[in-house]
Amino acid sequence: MSIPGLCRRNATDRNRYALAELQKDVDTELQKLPEAEREKNRPEFAVYVVHNKLKEKVGKLPTAIP
Prior knowledge:
By secondary structure, the protein is mainly α. It has 2 helices and no strands. It has helices at 6-30, 35-41.
């Protein structure tokens, strides 16, 4: 049995999970640096999304991600 939109939602959840895990990994590594160097070494994440503009968007990216 197939539920419409299920695969799309799962892909969106996986993408959000992957981004959250990447951010946690970066935070963990930044904690190893001296406090004075953390902010200047913090990377800026960006996401490039290719999508079908005719379909409804399922997920929403965090506002901090350009």
